[in-house]
Design brief:
about 140 residues; binds fe (ii) ion
Length: about 140
Amino acid sequence: MPQILELIREDHDLIRGLFDELESNPETRDVRCITLRRELPGHMYAEEATLYTHLRDRVPGEIRQSLDEHTGVKETLTRFEKIPLRDDAWMPALVDLRERVEAHFASEEGEVFALAEEHLDRGDLFALSERFEREKVAAARYVTV
Ligand SMILES: [Fe+2]
Ligand SMILES: [Fe+2]
């Protein structure tokens, strides 16, 4: 299995792809919304249970900032989910959610990844990847559609 930072980046790319499709293809929106509602919270939950937990004592300020970003994304996702697909407010809400998510991914792939490489050794990064996948599976069980 790849190390955890690679798994996180793969998830980010998958979610970016979902946003591309949601913006451009009205036909698949209902299905892609269900996928987004599963993948995005599951991804964040798994990060919090693994990478963030391991970095929290070493770089508390940065992890507090990342957790605040997660809270912002979750709140924006909750607002977005309440808007019907055919409502005029749907696309602006999608764009708003995407901007927030992309900004968070960028800070994670920049600062948080650099801190992880500085403070965790290769063994930690590989060991955390298995736990990351398990936490995502566990989180998916709690998502209702
Ligand atoms: Fe995150
Ligand atoms: Fe992430």
